[in-house]
TrEMBL record:
CDD domains associated with the record: TRAPPC1_MUM2
One GO term (biological process): endoplasmic reticulum to Golgi vesicle-mediated transport
UniProt keyword Endoplasmic reticulum present: yes
Subcellular location: Endoplasmic reticulum; Golgi apparatus, cis-Golgi network
Cellular component terms (Gene Ontology): endoplasmic reticulum; Golgi apparatus; TRAPP complex
Key words of the record: Endoplasmic reticulum, ER-Golgi transport, Golgi apparatus, Transport
Subunit structure: Part of the multisubunit transport protein particle (TRAPP) complex.
Domain of life: Eukaryota
InterPro entries in alphabetical order: Longin-like_dom_sf, TRAPPC
Name assigned to this protein: Trafficking protein particle complex subunit
SUPFAM superfamilies (alphabetical): SNARE-like (SSF64356)
Pfam families assigned: Sybindin
Source species of the chain: Panagrolaimus davidi
SMART domains named in the record: Sybindin
Amino acid sequence: MTLYNLYVFNSKGECICYKEWKRENKREITQEGEYKLIYGLILSLRSFAQRISTKDGQQYIKYFNTSGYKMNYMETATGLKFVLNSDPDAIGIPELLRTIYSIFVETVVKNPLVTTETTIESQLFHSRLDNAIKSHHSFV
């Protein structure tokens, strides 16, 4: 089991953070193209879930599973979107996403010098994020 990479999108759909740990395949498109592809996939999955639902109210996507990876997803009330790609058998990922969000709130949202309008350059955020990922039991 392992954790591959993380995308954080702001409410405008801009990737404000990308981190990679154990990505096995090289990207075949530009980084910006990959961000758009991932964001488009999220929007498509949300739209699909909403359209086929038999229940009223907002439908939530928690993950997208393939034989090679699992795309774990969390969206906040403010429109931030966190996407963590992992091994399909990785466990404890929803809790890890909540931990990442807590780190984000403490080091980005509560810091008046950091904005979510551009790429996050906060060294404190990146170091705490790395510590959380590397200490998680699914990071092998």
